[in-house]
Amino acid sequence: MDVAVKPVAVVQGATGGTDIQGLFSELVARWQPSARIAGVVAEGHGLERRACNAGYLRSIRDGRRFSIFQDLGVGSEACHLDASGATTASAAVCRDIAEGCDLVVLSKFGKLEAAREGLMPAFIAAVEAGVPVLTSVSSKFRSEWDRFADPLITYLPAEASAVETWWQAVRAAKAGQPAA
């Protein structure tokens, strides 16, 4: 791959994580006919009046949903993140990467990943396999992320055209062709 093309893209700047996850879902649907994509996209739990929105991680490869929340009840102010679902999702993504893929989309590098848990094994597997990664990063854990992924990172706005330009450049670089 051309060293000028960074293989790891972080989408940032949306008004909420859900906006970025919607963008990821839209782009994956567009790219799947011509690319083998592994990874997970986050989906909310749909429950009202909860402190956290963490709900599910949906497998891009087969549509399975991995629960990443515990329902602590209405009005609970504690975050209800359940690491076991993220760990199971990560193992599934690692298997998908080992089977071969052109791109890995991982919903987010956040609290669990900063502690080297959750989706961290999938991030590591993708980087070690030399597969491009598309993700988002919680601003709270940006320094941990930078320590992990620098100098492989490019930061992109939450705009389909910017991510599409990056993806086309990555594909062209992998194929040894100039970007269009």
Main sheet strand line-up: 4-3-2-5-6-1-7
N-to-C CA distance: 15 Å
Q: How many whole angstroms does the radius of gyration measure?
A: 16 Å
- Shape assignment: globular
Tally of extended strands? Answer: 7
- Share in β-strands: 15-25%
Number of helices: 6
SS-based class: alpha/beta
**Roughly what percent helix?**
25-40%
Low-confidence stretches: none
Described by strand count, sense and barrel closure, the largest sheet is: 7 strands, mixed
- List the helices and strands in order: EHEEEHEHHEHEH
Overall mean pLDDT stands at: 87
Quick structural gist:
This protein is α/β, with parallel strands linked by helices and 180 residues long. It has helices at 17-31, 83-99, 111-114, 120-129, 142-149, 160-174; strands spanning 8-12, 37-44, 54-59, 65-67, 103-109, 133-137, 153-157.
Describe the fold and architecture.
This protein is α/β, with parallel strands linked by helices and 180 residues long. Helices cover 38% and strands 22% of the residues. The chain contains 6 helices and 7 strands; from the N terminus they run βαβββαβααβαβα. The longest helix has 17 residues, at 83-99.
